[in-house]
Write a structure and sequence with these properties.
Low-confidence stretches: none
Largest sheet: 2 strands, antiparallel
Number of helices: 4
Mean pLDDT: 87
Structural class: alpha+beta
Strand order of the largest sheet: 1-2
Number of strands: 8
Radius of gyration: 17 Å
Distance between the termini: 17 Å
Strand content: 15-25%
Shape: elongated
Helix content: 25-40%
Amino acid sequence: GTTFKSITEGNFSSFGAQYRPKPWPPLRDPAGVPSNLQKSTTLSKAFTLAVTSQAATLANPMPYAAIHQHGGIIRAKGKALSWVNSKGERVFAKMVTIPARPFFPILNDKLTPAAEQKIGAAAQRVLDE
């Protein structure tokens, strides 16, 4: 469980990119800049791990975690969505499409090969002890 948590938290840096299920799309503003979902680090530091004798469960309680993991469309509830872009300009939109930037090292309900190898090695070390 702790290895899975470590890999997931590491996916927010360029080092962890090898464990992601797919490369993250670059930011739209400015074009070509890689995304690391690290504006405040709140998302990357909010993971909780619950371990029992049968399972380990990793979760993130942040309300925007799912939209980053799966992607989707955010629609304005009022007149418009509003945010400040990297140039300091206020931007307004009725809806925004957020591309998936999955941080859990899972693809098609299975661990990515790199994550499976690392978690398997950690499990083997525990068994050998």
